[in-house]
Amino acid sequence: MFEWLLEHLLTDHPRQVALVPMDGFHLAQSLLESRGLEHRKGAPDTFDGAGYVALLRRLRSETSREIFTPVFRREVNDAIAGAIAIPPETRLIITEGNYLLSDEAPWNEVASLLDETWFVELEQNERLRRLTARHLRFDNDAAIAEWRATGNDERNARLVAAGSQCSTLVIEHTPATASASGREQSVESGPPASNGSAIIHCLG
Q1: Distances in whole angstroms, Cα of residue 180 to Cα of each of 52, 88, 119
Q2: Is the peptide bond before 106 cis (omega within 30 degrees of 0)?
Q3: Minimal CB count within 10 Å: which of 3, 92, 134, 186?
């Protein structure tokens, strides 16, 4: 959804809009494995939440220099540092991720850094279908894919849903919503769970 929004905004406003995903702050797979947390990947404590908050502060205050941000690549199951460049002429920054509306530290610092928050809500069965299909894209074991979608991912989804009442706007994401936008959402780009997302800063 937000990739589609970014694409259309950039058509009219090149280099003035940027997307900064929270997923870039996943802890490294090797670190999760060394701590026995790989089975909980995607839970709040498997991210560098403080690092994400620090980046949001930089994006709000350091508007005259280029800033680089990480991105998560599913094909390598790890975050890649410095993969996104935010030029100083950027006027609008969109960030998206599961825990932007969480009341747990350090995530509870995020809301004060956002100008507006949108909570995207996906119907339960459709969310599970998309999650399972996404896991299957990177792991051919159907049983493991279902276990991940209904286990750790489901626990995380409940945490995410708790923040919906704090958002500026709740969007019910359905196939009709995607079609109306002009493009059917794919498994990869569609929200895997109820997803707190935000426009964080409008400049100028």
Answers
A1: 32, 33, 18
A2: yes
A3: 186
